[in-house]
Amino acid sequence: MLARVRSATLLGIEAIPLFVECDINRGLPGIHTVGLPDAAVRESADRVRAAIRNAGFDMPPRRITISLAPADLRKQGSGLDLPIALGILAANGDVPPHRLADLLVLGELALDGSVRRVPGCLPAALLARGSGIHEMIVPRANHEEALSVPGPGVHGVERLLDAVAVLRGERRPERATAASYQPSTHPPGLDLSEVKGQAHAKRALEVAAAGGHHLLMIGPPGCGKTMLARRLAGILPPLGLEESIEVTCVYSAAGLLREPGLLRTRPFRAPHHTISGVGLVGGGRLPRPGEVTLAHHGVLFLDEMAEFGRTTLDVLRQPLEDGLIVINRIGYSARMPCRFTLVGAMNPCVCGNLGRSDRPCACAPAMIAQYRNRVSGPLLDRFDVQVEVPPLSLGDLAQTVPAEPSATVATRIAAARHQSVAGPEPPVTPAGRRILHQAIRHLGLSARAHDSVLRVARTIALLEGATSTQPQHIAEAVQYRCLDKPAKHPQEADGD
Ligand SMILES: Nc1ncnc2c1ncn2[C@@H]1O[C@H](COP(=O)(O)OP(=O)(O)O)[C@@H](O)[C@H]1O
Ligand SMILES: [Mg+2]
Ligand SMILES: [Zn+2]
Predict the structure, then answer these.
(1) What is the pTM assigned to this prediction?
(2) Which of 232, 278, 339, 441 could form a disulfide with 283 if both were Cys (CB 3.0 to 4.6 A apart)?
(3) Is 36 exposed, middle or buried (0-12, 13-18, 19+ CB in 10 A)?
(4) CA nearest ligand 1 atom 16, residue
(5) CA 491 to centroid of ligand 3, rounded, Å
(6) Residue whose CA is at the smallest distance from ligand 1 atom 9
(7) Is pLDDT at 314 greater than 60 in this prediction?
(8) What is the 217 CA–ligand 3 centroid distance (Å)?
(9) Does the beta carbon of 221 lie inside 6 Å of ligand 1?
(10) Distance CA 192, CA 202 (A)
(11) How far is the CA of 222 from the centre of ligand 1 (A)?
């Protein structure tokens, strides 16, 4: 007899529909799987056999052929265990097959017949919703995740026998009521009030957050660059429902979802500088999301940016440009979103002391140039906001009055974002244009830098609630092009 079970496999962060077809026929007993299974799917046979026996059924002593369709799509993961087991039971007449047509099934089986969590249940729920499938069977551990969007009815099962009960019509599914999503406004810990001094860098952080501009911080070790970067996600506007669904899909597909239901805070990713290009942008034979996609709708922080390989960093240029990674495989392409705010931090020079008044910089000018060159010009150009973060002064360190909390800053940012969505862009006043052209001539700014200054100046105007972009907004924006200014020589810095 033949049975067909609907399931899904992941391609990047998307669930692709597939059918598990199961045929039991005369021949030597055994399970034969065809249709491009990966290692985990091939090993499924052993888990399924044990789980079926331990659930109290007999394995049919015949030849079982499992065909995964479409045949040309590579199938990954252990989520096909449960559909394969139900297919065998249905083909053997142990469970009624008629409910299978309207069910999408996902789950890994343990040898004792219990059902384990799998990646990709939210993408699968979206797939079911989009293709009009009415019910899903998922592991109990993925139950809330599958229920986090209104869509199909969900059976969260703990054991193979629970899934059998669903096919026998003995269990009712749960359904998501209207979305009860509430974004988290205060990510725990990490408040801006803990960062002392550094008013200029904090202001730059606020401008970057308000406009979604990429931010580069240059300063000696220990001045608070990492502290500041870690507090950016907390002042960005709260994660909206649609954004949350996208982010949760990414983490679900990557198998990194640790809490039930939708994620409510913006991601913050800080990959180590030894990461590979594929680790950064994603890929592999079975395409997996990289750090840029894990940072989608959040922050990607490259700490000690000069330590990343130059070729590794250069792979960032395309995702920064497109906000999307496309990985092509024969017949299919994985599309993974990656719209994030990039934050880079680097020392001013190899020894880290350039610009300090208390310690001399030991680097020759050529070394400094070489150090900065480790990050390519085109990538540096993407940072609309560039700030020098000075060493913390003794006065700042002794500061006991807590600085402004993240919540206050976030309110201003939300207001600016609201204006930028609701109203027209604040036009540049004639006086503003004059200042802009002067600055461009003075600093020899490129056309790209010109556009960047304008973008940032508009954000600053919006933060102020101004209806036009004025000279002081342009002047502040010009300050955020610190890399366009010629670097100071160590000797000059010493004399400061
Ligand atoms: N502006 C600051 N306010 C309060 N503490 C700071 C500040 N800057 C540095 N620190 C302290 O120094 C440590 C190192 O700071 P960090 O942000 O890692 O510096 P950087 O990334 O610039 O090397 C922090 O964990 C914190 O304890
Ligand atoms: Mg640091
Ligand atoms: Zn130095």
Answers:
(1) 0.91
(2) 278
(3) middle
(4) 224
(5) 11
(6) 224
(7) yes
(8) 16
(9) yes
(10) 8
(11) 5
Pocket test for ligand 1, best of 215, 223, 343 (most atoms within 8 A of CB): 223
CB atoms inside a 10 Å sphere around CB 89: 26
Average per-residue pLDDT for the chain: 90
CA 197 to ligand 1 centroid distance, Å: 11
Q: State the Cα–Cα distance between residues 178 and 172, nearest whole angstrom.
A: 19
Least distant ligand from the CA of 221:
1
**Nearest C-alpha to atom 20 of ligand 1 is from which residue?**
222
Tell which one of 227, 302, 401 to mutate to probe ligand 1, the residue whose CB is within 8 A of the most ligand atoms: 227
- The pLDDT value recorded for residue 488 is 46
CB 114 within 8 A of CB 52: no
pLDDT at position 472 over 60? yes
CATH 3.40.50.300 correct for 192-484:
yes
Q: Using CB atoms within 10 A of its CB, is residue 173 exposed (0-12), middle (13-18) or buried (19+)?
A: middle
Domain segments of the chain as ranges: 2-167, 192-484
The radius of gyration of the chain from alpha carbons, rounded to an integer in Å, stands at 28
Task: Say which CATH architecture domain 2-167 belongs to.
Answer: 2-Layer Sandwich (3.30)
pLDDT tens by residue, 431-453: 999 999 998 888 888 888 899 99
* Gap from CA of 193 to ligand 1 centroid (Å): 13
Nearest protein CA to atom 10 of ligand 1, as residue: 224
**Distance from the CA of 56 to the center of ligand 2, in angstroms?**
57
